[in-house]
Automatic annotation (TrEMBL):
GO terms for cellular component: mitochondrial inner membrane. This is Uncharacterized protein. InterPro entries: NDUFA5. One of its GO terms (biological process) is respiratory electron transport chain. Keywords: Electron transport, Membrane, Mitochondrion, Mitochondrion inner membrane, Respiratory chain, Transport. It comes from Melampsora larici-populina (strain 98AG31 / pathotype 3-4-7) (Poplar leaf rust fungus).
Amino acid sequence: MYQVQSSTRKASTTSPDPMSFKLPSTESEVAELLASSKTPQERREIFQALLGTQSNPIPPLPSIPKSSSGVHLIPIGRKKLTTDHTGIQVHHSPFEALKETYSNTLKTLQNFPTASVYRQSVESLTQRNLEIVLKHEVGKAAHTSQEIEDSIKALEIELGVNLVEEAIDQAKDEHSLVLSLYDSEAWSDLIEKPSPGQWDSFTVPSSTSYPKD
């Protein structure tokens, strides 16, 4: 458990071997303190300790993201606190989240007919995006927070998005669509056969009344 050292107020716990830290005075110090935590439990304890020392509590700590299988993803040490976009929280495991979602999409597409145009186009785009993620992927252990943010920015540029969080949402939406199409077997023949010529393309004859030069 954590103890906060403050000249005006002290928050302590009854843990027999408490860890202590100096109360941060700036937003960047708060971010650095949270980024230095090693486990989700430590992050919660730091946040709870900070709440007990401030008259204006800081916003609730975002929950640790989970994968589609319900397993907590591993934070990579981002110090970024906000995306500056309302309703979009900073994702602390963007590389892992994208890898898993893209991989699941590719796995589901294997059940589509190989002749499916949808499968061919989505498979090509998803494989390309996955390769981009693998190229820029970094981990907390071997990189500084600035190097991590630089890698994320390079990833955003190559994926063509403003925020990596947007890429994650797009990947999840595509995966959901793939699952829906797979469940409905969208490639199957229609129950009601189309009328002859219903899907034939048509052409508009050129005008014969337009004046010639």
